[in-house]
Amino acid sequence: MHTVDCEEKKKRIVGGLRYFAFLNLGILLMTVGIFFFKAPNGFATGGVSGLSIILARLLPTFSQATYMLFINLTLLIVGVIVLGRECGGLTIYCSLMMSLENRLFECLIPLSEPLTHYPLLELIYAVVLTGVGSAIIFKCKASSGGTDIVALILKRNTCMNVATALLCTDLLIACCSFLEFLDTGVGINFEVGLFSIMGLFAKVFIVDDIIDSINMCKSFTIITREADLIINYITENMHHSATVVDGKGAFSGDERTIIMTVCKRGEAIRLRKRVYEIDPHSFIIITKTSEILGKGFRDNVQ
User: At the topology level of CATH, where does 217-289 sit?
Assistant: First the structure.
């Protein structure tokens, strides 16, 4: 009994460390995308990072990282007051870590100009890095805070849902990226503005696709004569369950057993190989899915 408890405790610790590392990887990728690619080019694709980039360009009294830290702290205070528990500890952690990492990069690796002379290339890196980072943070059931807090406040006080409120907030920030201070007054920078708008919409699609890719699992339908051995492998080696149905071939009339199960992407290769080792004449249908609700996969059906 003591050995079992130790094993469970060890698994929880390893799982917690893996979760923490994965979460911080998402924060780091977002910070790299913002500091090295978005900020030097003035790409404001929404969020607090976009607003801080605009403010640093229009009012260069403070740096982008300083504006970002100040805005995030302000929004977190407002979020805690207005939203209470909806503005959770993970949101506070992610928001502050991203602001502090951005400030650290600014102190250690100051940039006075873009890394390259190819703004489209830098926009691609900015969108991909921040998109992957956002997807990882969402996968960890966390939020980077910022305009997410504004969206939650709008949702509470208007008829908009979170996605619509967030898009409206980010679109407003992206549209502000057209503004630029000139010697003669406020002017319009079409290049930066158009890049920002394009980056905003590209980020929306990229985040959705990456989340689907991270959640990707495989659904197996196995038609076989060696059901017992295959079921034993699924339950004992993979620690999954399966649904078993008796079947009959429409053409041959032979009796078969149909096994239906789902597994993670890495497990799918092993299962396919093992099924063919057990029954080389089995018939396997494998489909991709990113939405599996139930024990061992997603327990939250919201």
Answer: Alpha-Beta Plaits (3.30.70)
